[in-house]
Amino acid sequence: MRSIKLAVAVVAVSGLLGCGGSQPSIYRVAMERVTLANTAACFRAGQVPTTNPDETTNMVDEEQWVIWDGIDDVQYLEPGNIDYSLGQAEDISIGGEAIQGGKVEDNTVFTTTRTRRESTTEIYTTSATYTIEKLGKTLEGSLALSSACAGADCGGIPSCNVTLRFVGRKISTDNLTVYDNSGGD
């Protein structure tokens, strides 16, 4: 156990004294929710069902993201779970720890894509593209979600694209601490 603590301490000190790069930035993010109103294209008829038994308004999803600089102008984003239901289109569920990305013109962009082949005539492709337009003490941008099925066996599953807005604020903590906004010690 003592050797593990020593190894962790050496890695931590090496990281602090190493390349002089910045530490990971942690953001508390408010993400617009996927709702029936913004997913009309994700239904077979191209319109939202006429009956909606349960609707909530004026709510956002709260997330905690970590962004850090890699080498050679590469950056990494840990957005947490990428799991979105888009009406009758294929759900977007992409697993992993972090997305690799970087500068594209004036934005910071992170894209991940999952291709699932059920057969040669049923191929599902889903993607999530995080475009960060403002990155500093605050964070602003959009998340473009895309879901498509290609092939004769898709059974009318619609393809759709949804864009959600997000905003966030950099928080003072480290990536090993769970942020608690209760204000107490």
Features:
single chain, 185 residues, mainly beta, Porin, 1 helix, disordered N terminus
Give a verbal description of the structure.
By secondary structure, this protein is mainly beta. The chain has one domain (20-45, 59-171): Porin (Beta Barrel), CATH 2.40.160. The chain has one helix at residues 2-17, and strands at residues 25-32, 60-69, 75-78, 82-84, 92-94, 99-104, 107-119, 122-135, 138-150, 160-171. The protein has an eight-stranded antiparallel β-barrel with strand order 1-2-3-6-7-8-9-10. The two termini are 29 Å apart. Mean pLDDT is 84; it is low at 1-20.
Brief overview:
The chain has 185 residues and is mainly beta. Helices cover 9% and strands 46% of the residues.
Helicity level = under 10%
Structural class: mainly beta
Stretches where pLDDT is under 50 for at least 5 consecutive residues are 1-20
Average pLDDT reading: 84
Order of helices and strands: HEEEEEEEEEE
> Any idea how many domains?
1
CA-atom Rg in angstroms: 20 Å
End-to-end separation: 29 Å
Order of strands in the sheet with most strands: 1-2-3-6-7-8-9-10
CATH architecture: Beta Barrel
Total helical elements: 1
How many strands? 10
**Percent of sequence in beta strands:** over 45%
The general outline is globular
Q: Tell me the CATH topology.
A: Porin
Query: Major β-sheet, in short?
Result: 8 strands, antiparallel, barrel
CATH class: Mainly Beta
